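Example record

One chain of 342 residues, shown exactly as stored in the release files.
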Amino acid sequence: MSRTQKTVKKIEKIFASSLTKKIGNAFKAIGLFFVKIFKIFDNKLTIMIVPHSQGKVINIQTNVFAFILSGCLTVGIISSFIYFNRHSISANMEISSLMNQNRETLASLDQLRDENANLFQAAKRFQTSLSQSLSLLGIDQVENKTDTSLNNSDLSSLFSTKETVTGTARELQDIQELTSYLEGAVEPIEQIGKMLKTQQSLFTEIPSICPIKSPNLHISMAFGPNLHPYTNQWYIHKGIDFSTWRAGDPVMATASGQVVTVAFDKSFGNFVVIKHNHGIYTRYAHLNNYRVQKGQLVEQGDIIGYVGNTGVSTGPHLHYEVHIGSDVVDPAKYINIKLTNK
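Predicted C-alpha cells for this chain:
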C-alpha cells in the first residue's frame, strides 16, 4: 500500500469519527431537551380550595402537563358550546322566518282559491247570459277551437267535470279550461259588436233611452191600471211618470226625430210631441218650459225641455208616453234601464 493511500484512509477515519461524535452529541442534546421539558411538565402543583366557612380545605395535586391539558380541554369545550349555541340560534331564527313565510304563503293560497271560486261563479253567470244572448240573436254557440282537454267550450261541461283531480293541479286545469272557453267566446262577442254597429242607426230611431238622467230618478207612477191621484178611481195610465223630487232637471229626446207639437194643455200642461221613424211618437208632459220649436229636428239625447209641475199634476215630474201608430204602448219595453217604483 502506498503512502498516499494510507493518508487517505487516515483522513477518512478522522472524518467518520468526527461525524459520529457530532451526531451523538446532537442526539444527546435532543434527549436532554426532552428531559428538561418532561421535568417542567412533571413539576408537581397543588391546588387548594379554601371554603369561606370553616370547612375542610381541599387539596388537589397534579402536574403542569395535566393542568395545561385540562385548561385546553376546558377552553375547547366552552368555545365549542358558544359556537354551536350561536349556530343554533341562527338556525332557529331562519326556521322561524321560513315558518312565517309558509303561513303567509298558505294564507295567500287560500285567498287565491277563494278568488278562483268567485271567478268560476262569475263565469257561470257569464256563460248563461252569453248563451241566452246568442240564442236571441241567432248566433252559433261558442265552440272550442283550442287543443285542450275539453271537447267543447260550453261551460256546462266545465262545471260538470268529475272531481278526478284535487289541489293545485285541479285549480290549474280549471283555469286552463276557463281560458279555453273565453278564447272561444271572443268570436261571437265580436259578431254581436258588428251587429250592434250595423244597427246603430236603428237604436237611435226608437225610444231606447231614459228621458231623464239623475241619481234621484224614480218612477212615481207606472204604465197601466192605477188609482187617479185626484179622483182616487181606477183608470188606465197611458205613460210613465218620472220624478226626481224637484223641478228643473233636463228632459231628453229618447230617439231622433222631428218635433211636431209644442203646446199647453189643461191636463198635460206644457208638453212636446216628437215624431220618429217607423210610426213612433213620444210625448213629454208637465214641462216647466220648452227648449225646442215645432218642426225642429232633434237627435237622441238632445234636451227638449225641463221637468215641471204644469197642468194636472201633484208635484214636479215628467209624464212620458210612447205611441206606435194609434196604439199607446208601455215605454218601459223600450227603455234600456230598470227603475223601481218609489
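Notes: The first helix runs from residue 3 to 41.
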